[in-house]
Amino acid sequence: HEQTIFNNIKHELAGAGSDLRIRVQFLDTARFGGFCQLFRNDMARACTMHANCCIGMANKVSDLRDVLGQWRNYTVMAPAEKMKAKAAGRSFEWRVPAKCGTPDKRP
């Protein structure tokens, strides 16, 4: 239902009759991750993670908290430590969501 609500708000704010002059545009998915499409799985390139395909607020909050924890662990690493790990073949990828995403991607 969130997408429907967003579409209504979007048209209200950016529609022809709006005085706000807001422009809404699609963004390149190369900088965005989502629970249903983890193919853009490079933490170094991520800007945001969304859970719009996830059903249930408790599921979204649980998995987004996990993402935040993963992000914190990644960002506290020194650049030299990240380069050393990358050179050793360790990659920094998002874990598959525990409660969201498609059943074939859940652990």
Automatic annotation (TrEMBL):
A Pfam match: Nucleotid_trans
Transmembrane regions: none
UniProt domain Nucleotide-diphospho-sugar transferase: residue ranges: 1-64
InterPro entries with a match to the protein in the record: At1g28695/At4g15970-like, Nucl-diP-sugar_transferase
PANTHER family to which the protein is assigned, alphabetical: EXPRESSED PROTEIN-RELATED, NUCLEOTIDE-DIPHOSPHO-SUGAR TRANSFERASE DOMAIN-CONTAINING PROTEIN
Protein name: Nucleotide-diphospho-sugar transferase domain-containing protein
Source species taxonomy: Eukaryota, Viridiplantae, Streptophyta, Embryophyta, Tracheophyta
